[in-house]
Amino acid sequence: MTDFSPQRLHRLADERHTLAPAEIVALLHAQDHDLKALYAAADALRREKVGDNVFLRGIIEFSNYCLNDCAYCGIRAGNQAVSRYRMPPEEIIARAEHADRWGCTSVVLQSGEDPWFTTPRLCEIITGIKRRSAVAVTISVGIRSPAEIRELRAAGCARCLVRFETSDRELFARIHPDETFERRIQCLRDFRAAGFQTGSGFMIGLPDAPLETLAADILYATRLDLDMIGCGPFIAHADTPLAGTPLLADREIYFKTIAIMRLLNPLVHLPATTAFDALVRGGRDRLLQMGCNVFMPNLTPGQYRAQYQLYPGKPCLDEDGAACAACVMKRVEKLGRLIGRSPGHSFKPANLSHPAPDDDLGL
């Protein structure tokens, strides 16, 4: 693809799956005027398709216990330097109730794969949240069985986040010794089959991953036909085997990836993920100007935040939930955007939200 004009890039968005891997690699190499055109096209498409609202999805990191030993994650099972915690269920419910008052129309309940939080316990928490507030609930707790997923749906949870991290099966196996790619994708399908709005995504800048791998990840996420796609820079924690993995020399590649995701996924919810502020000061603000429409303030109580560091340099460790939410609102409004007041449900018609056939996904 040699035409990087906003008109050409915008036109691509109306034709699903039109970019070949080589074309995506060319966009990832974009510089100067071509780069500005890419960002402008992504922002214009965001405005046209999903509007100026930015939806606030408050993250509650309720447990840093984890069974898995992922090679980059700060709360991996083998990291003995972490002080482990579990928020009491009532505290989680109360925090979600506060989120409603702080302007968040949904909350993301996120944890490591912690067996103490059984599905019945999670269902009690979700039921308590729904009884005391109007927020939508997203669950991000790792792998659950189809029966457990149906229980979570019956309790009132309607959204999930299960990131596939990379579509390169060999690379996935190297950095996730306790998990398989196929099992993770099957779990995502099980959530969708149970009526969940599905979210997934991948890490940008994985070790020994060429731009062709990144292009494949972009296309894979697009073919999953998700309701939300969350991507962030790969930044390995210091207490992990992959500590010291260098960032990409061209830092703009992280941002280019998000803009390309918007071009290929016009109706998706695209969050400005927290790790971009660890990558560069004001990184999340930039993302809101190149296609993103979701911001995720950290609502985890202050006494736990420092112990939930999946990567180094995580921002806002010294803020409380109210201050973090207020800060996010100011950042959004400063950019001339609006705070979304609805729950921020999927923009996709129900009949379009379906898993692609296994053959199309290479399984």
Describe the structure.
The chain is α/β, with parallel strands linked by helices. It has a single domain, classed as TIM Barrel, CATH 3.20.20.70. 41% of the residues lie in helices and 11% in strands. The strands form two sheets. Strands 1, 2, 3, 4, 5, 7, 9, 10 and 11 form a nine-stranded parallel β-sheet that branches. It has a two-stranded parallel ribbon with strand order 6-8. Helix 4 links the parallel strand 1 and strand 2. The chain is globular.
Protein topology:
Layout: H1 6-12, H2 21-28, H3 32-50, E1 53-63, H4 89-101, E2 106-111, H5 119-132, E3 136-140, H6 146-154, E4 159-161, H7 169-175, H8 181-193, E5 197-200, E6 203-204, H9 211-223, E7 228-229, E8 232-233, H10 252-264, E9 271-272, H11 275-279, H12 283-287, E10 294-295, H13 302-305, H14 321-334, E11 338-339, H15 358-361
Parallel strand pairs: 1-2, 1-10, 1-11, 2-3, 3-4, 4-5, 5-7, 6-8, 9-10
Oligomer: single chain
The helical percent reads 40-55%
CATH domain class name? Alpha Beta
User: Any guess at the CATH architecture?
Assistant: Alpha-Beta Barrel
